[in-house]
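Quick illustration for those who missed Monday's session on complexes.
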Amino acid sequence: MPDLQELGEAIKRGDRDQSAMLTNAAIAAKVPAQEILDVMVAAMDVVGQRFQKNEIFVPEMLIAARAMKESLALLEPLLVDAGITPIAKAVIGTVEGDLHDIGKNLVAMMWKGANFDVIDLGTNVSPQKFVDAVRDNNAQLVGLSALLTTTMPAIKATVAALKAAGLDTAKVVIGGAPVTQEYADEVGADGYAPDAASAVNVARALL
Ligand code: B1M
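Prediction with CO-5-methoxybenzimidazolylcobamide bound:
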């Protein structure tokens, strides 16, 4: 049985080789993907707490994130189900000014797993870029992620830009650590999801 605790420790240290090796070992041992993911997410929480307490700094946070991303890429095929005909087209991205993408990538994976055709615009995505992508792809669903209190207003600006462009038939789901249902109501988003798994339920309910 692979040591999942050691996987969490490897992510916290930013040891990519070790975390990839342990992730592969866990996959090979048929540990459920959700269980592996939970360990990885908990490790990133600890990284965030250490950063908050000034025990570590941005470079350490970055190498931990890199290790997590590599392990997440190994998990992706397990998280993404083999869907046949996509239920809907979705555009997702992290809003302007914000470079955090791990949570957004997780939502994208879960949406792919729920059989949505997902177009991932990446990070630091301007309202106009969201508008263009929704229009060009005739998307029915839009996902906006923000991890910083300072980038939350970009969610509001993006929702407003979509409305101004007459694209309000596309349902907007928002999320990210500082985002709340209250904020979603305030900015006129159609839905809020606290995590990637509930982003699937929220999207399904809206569609
Ligand atoms: Co940043 N960072 N960071 N960071 N970082 C946070 C967010 C912070 C909380 C750390 C802290 O102080 N404790 C803090 C924000 C404080 C605030 O505004 N309230 C912070 C800060 C301050 C900063 C910088 C300003 C630091 C600096 O430079 N001084 C800077 C900003 C850069 C920028 O974006 N312009 C910065 C930079 C970085 C790195 C680049 C080093 C790196 C990101 C690397 C990357 O993403 N590729 C990084 C990291 C790794 C973090 C922490 C440690 C981890 C984030 C993460 O990936 N978590 C984070 C602390 C923390 O959150 N614990 C922190 C794991 C991920 C699975 O969770 O993204 O929350 P999360 O996603 C969750 C939910 O939020 C939700 O689902 C996911 C779970 O299922 N969700 C959605 C997310 N998006 C969703 C969309 C949805 C629905 C749900 O619908 C569409």
